[in-house]
Design a protein that fits this description.
With about 475 residues, the protein is an alpha/beta fold. Helix content is about 25%, strand content about 25%. The chain folds into 3 domains: about 1-40; about 75-275, P-loop containing nucleotide triphosphate hydrolases (Rossmann fold); about 280-430 and about 435-460, Ribosomal Protein S5, domain 2. The longest helix is centred in the middle third of the chain and has 18 residues, at about 190-205. It is globular, with a radius of gyration of 26 Å. The structure holds thymidine-5'-diphosphate (TYD) and magnesium ion. Thymidine-5'-diphosphate binds near residues 267 and 271.
C-alpha cells in the first residue's frame, strides 16, 4: 500500500487536495486550505469478509409514533425546530460570532432545566465565570442546569457517559473541542468532524438531544459548519446584523420539521426576547409618504411577514453604475432593472441603485419582485407608493406578473395590520372563483409590470430624468 501523505483540506467545504492551493477548486473559497494528516481508514473491503448481520427490510406502511419532543419553552425556537428538541437528535446552531448563539442557548437550556430535565452546558469558549456573568445578566442564576468549561473531547465524552438521564447537552462551540489523537489543530475540518461524530454518536446511543454551536467565519482558522450539516438532524442559522436588534433564527435543514421556518427575536439588555408579531416590528420605523418605499407581503416558512423595501436612485458619477443591495439578491435586482428598461420603457441605467430590506431581514422569495419594482419605480418617479398598500408577485422576463404561493395568507396578514390595498398578480380561479379578499382590502390585480409603472406615471407630476 502506498505511503499515506498529508493532504490539504478546504476548511469551508471539506474537499481534500493533494497539494496546497490558494483557492479551493471544489467550492471556490480563497485561503481556506489547511494541512491535515490523512483520515484513518474505514472498514474497507474487510467488512465484506467479516460477515455483517442481515438488515431487516420493512414496508412503508406501519405504525411509527411521531418523535417525542422536548419543548424549549421559547415558542419561536420551538417552531423553528418543528415543535421542540427531539431526544437522541443533533442540532447545529450556526451564525456569526457575537450574534447571540450562546445567549439563546443559555436561555433555552435554563427553560428545559426548569421543567425538571437534566441539562448540561459545556462551554469551550468561555470560562465558567463568564457564563455565570451572562446567566446573571439574563436572570438565570437560579437555573438548575449543570455548567462546565471543557474542550478535550475525551473528558467531555467520559463525563457524558456517566450521565444517567441527561435530556439536553449543549456544546458551545464545536470548534473549540479537540481530540488529542488527531494532529490537526482544534477548529480544523478533521477535528470538528471527528469530535462532532463522536458526540452525535453518544447522543444517539444515550438518547439525549445535543446542540452544537458552530461559528461561521470567512477566515480559514475555524472550520465552516457546512461540513457538519450532513451529520446533524437539523441546522439552524442565527442571522441578523449586529447593528440591529433583530435576530432571525432560520432552519435550513430539519429532519423533524419544515425548513425555512423562521423565529424572530429582539436582542435586549436582558437577553433575546421573542417577537410574536414580526410584521409590526419590521414596519415600526416606516415613514409614510416617502418615495422609494414599498411594503412587501412575504412568507417566511409558514408565517406571513410584512417588510419594507427601500430603494434609492442617484445619478451615477460616471463609470459603471453602482448596484448596492442589502437583504435581497443582487442578481435579481439586475434582472428587474433590465425588465423595467426593456419592457416598461424606463431608463434607470445611468443611476446608482441602492436597495435595502429594512430591519435586517434577508428575503429569498421571488414574490418580492413586485414590491422591489414598486419601490424602484416610486424612487424613479419621486412619487410615494400608497402607504396603505402591500405588494407581492413574481416578475418574469417579459414583464409579466406571475402567481405566487399563499396569496390568501399574505392578504390576511396585510388586513390584520390595517393595510387597505394590495397589488398582486391576477388571481386565477382554481375550481370556481378566487376566495373573497379580507374585508377592507382593495385588490389591484396586475398582469404586467408596465401596468404598475403606468399607475405611477398617472400620479407623477415630476418624473425624474434618468441620468439627470
Ligand atoms: P453571544 O450570545 O455571546 O453571541 P455568540 O455566542 O453568537 O458569539 O452574544 C453576544 C452579544 O450579545 C454581545 O455583543 C452582547 C450582546 N448581549 C446583549 O445585548 N444582551 C444580553 O443580555 C446578552 C447576554 C448579550
Ligand atoms: Mg458564544
Amino acid at each position: 500500500m502506498a505511503k499515506e501523505k498529508t493532504r490539504f483540506v478546504c476548511q469551508a467545504c471539506g474537499a481534500a487536495h493533494p497539494k496546497w492551493q490558494g483557492r479551493c477548486e471544489a467550492c471556490g473559497e480563497w485561503n481556506t486550505m489547511a494541512e491535515e494528516a490523512p483520515a484513518p481508514r474505514g472498514p474497507g473491503p474487510a467488512a465484506k469478509a467479516a460477515g455483517g448481520r442481515r438488515v431487516e427490510f420493512v414496508g412503508l406502511k406501519g405504525e411509527s409514533a411521531p418523535p417525542a419532543r422536548i419543548p424549549t419553552g421559547i415558542a419561536e425556537l420551538d417552531r423553528v425546530l418543528g415543535g421542540g428538541l427531539v431526544p437522541a437528535s443533533a442540532v447545529l446552531v450556526g451564525g456569526d460570532p457575537g450574534i447571540g448563539k450562546s445567549t439563546i442557548l443559555l436561555q433555552a437550556a435554563a427553560r428545559v432545566a426548569a421543567a425538571g430535565r437534566r441539562v448540561l452546558y459545556v462551554s469551550g469558549e468561555e470560562a465558567v465565570e463568564q457564563v455565570r456573568l451572562r446567566a446573571a445578566r439574563l436572570g438565570l442564576t437560579e437555573s438548575p442546569m449543570a455548567l462546565a468549561a471543557a474542550t478535550a473531547l475525551r473528558d467531555i465524552v467520559a463525563s457524558l457517559e456517566q450521565e444517567r438521564d441527561a435530556a439536553l447537552v449543549v456544546i458551545d462551540s464545536i470548534q473549540t473541542v479537540w481530540l488529542d489523537a488527531l494532529d490537526s489543530a482544534p477548529g480544523t475540518v478533521a477535528q470538528v468532524r471527528a469530535c462532532a461524530a463522536e458526540l452525535i454518536r453518544l447522543a444517539k446511543a444515550r438518547g439525549f438531544a445535543i446542540v452544537l454551536v458552530g461559528h461561521v467565519t470567512k477566515e480559514g482558522t475555524l472550520a465552516g459548519p457546512r461540513v457538519l450539516e450532513h451529520m446533524v438532524d437539523a441546522t439552524l442559522y442565527f442571522e441578523g446584523d449586529r447593528g440591529h436588534q433583530f435576530r432571525i433564527l432560520r432552519a435550513v435543514k430539519n429532519r423533524f420539521g419544515a425548513t425555512d421556518e423562521i423565529g424572530v427575536f429582539e436582542m435586549t439588555g436582558t437577553g433575546l426576547v421573542e417577537v410574536a408579531n414580526p410584521s409590526a416590528l419590521f414596519l415600526a420605523e416606516r415613514r409614510g409618504n416617502v418615495s422609494g418605499s414599498a411594503v412587501f407581503a412575504g412568507i417566511e416558512g409558514t408565517r406571513p411577514v410584512l417588510v419594507e423595501v427601500q430603494a434609492l436612485l442617484s445619478p451615477s458619477s460616471g463609470g459603471s453604475p453602482r448596484r448596492q443591495v442589502v437583504g435581497w439578491d443582487s442578481g435579481r435586482l439586475s434582472m428587474l432593472l433590465a425588465v423595467l428598461e426593456a419592457r416598461c420603457g424606463m431608463s434607470l441605467g445611468q443611476n446608482d441603485v441602492y436597495l435595502n430590506i429594512a430591519g435586517g431581514l434577508r428575503i429569498a422569495e421571488p414574490a418580492a419582485d413586485l414590491a422591489v419594482a414598486a419601490a424602484l419605480v416610486s424612487a424613479a418617479t419621486d412619487r410615494p407608493t400608497d402607504s396603505g398598500a402591500v405588494y407581492f408577485g413574481e416578475v418574469g422576463l417579459s414583464g409579466e406578473v406571475r402567481q405566487v404561493a399563499q396569496a390568501e395568507a399574505r392578504l390576511r396578514e396585510a388586513a390584520k395590520l390595517g393595510f387597505t390595498a394590495a397589488t398582486l398578480p391576477r388571481r386565477v380561479a382554481r375550481g370556481g372563483k378566487a376566495p373573497a379578499p379580507p374585508a377592507g382590502l382593495a385588490l389591484a390585480e396586475t398582469g404586467h409590470l408596465a401596468d404598475l409603472v403606468a399607475g405611477f406615471a398617472e400620479k407623477s407630476v415630476r418624473p425624474r430624468r434618468a441620468g439627470g
